[in-house]
Amino acid sequence: MASMTIRNIDEQLKHSLRIQAAAHGWSMEEEVRQILHKAITTKEKAEEPLGTRIHKLFMEAGGLDLGTISRTDMPRIVELPDGHS
After folding, report:
1. pLDDT value of residue 17
2. What is the pTM for the complete model shown?
3. Is 21 in contact with 28 (CB distance < 8 Å)?
């Protein structure tokens, strides 16, 4: 697995990162991995078309069965006044 070093991090940012990592019960290093992973995968998901993303959300939730719509009514003829087509 690759390694990475990040220099010149603001002390307040580092402190906030330490607090957030502790709240999740893991190391600062793991917290940064999780943040990077979420940032990248969220961007990749956002590049999918909206309809595809909505479809996936419904499928993850168990889908949605709308049933079959009965279509017994015949279309009606609309009569327009003279001069209108």
Report:
1. 94
2. 0.50
3. yes
Total Cβ atoms within 10 A of residue 33: 14
Q: Which amino acid is at 59?
A: M
Average pLDDT, the chain: 86
**Burial annotation 38-71 (CB, 10 A radius, 16+ → b, else e):** eeeeeeeeeeeeeeeeeeeeeeeeeeeeeeeeee
Tokens of 15: 């402190």
- Domain boundaries defined on the chain: 11-60
Where would I find the beta strands (DSSP E) of 25-75? none
14-54: per-residue pLDDT in tens? Answer: 999 999 999 999 999 999 999 999 888 876 666 788 888 88
Q: Which amino acid is at 78?
A: V
Number of other residues whose CB lies within 10 A of the CB of residue 75: 5
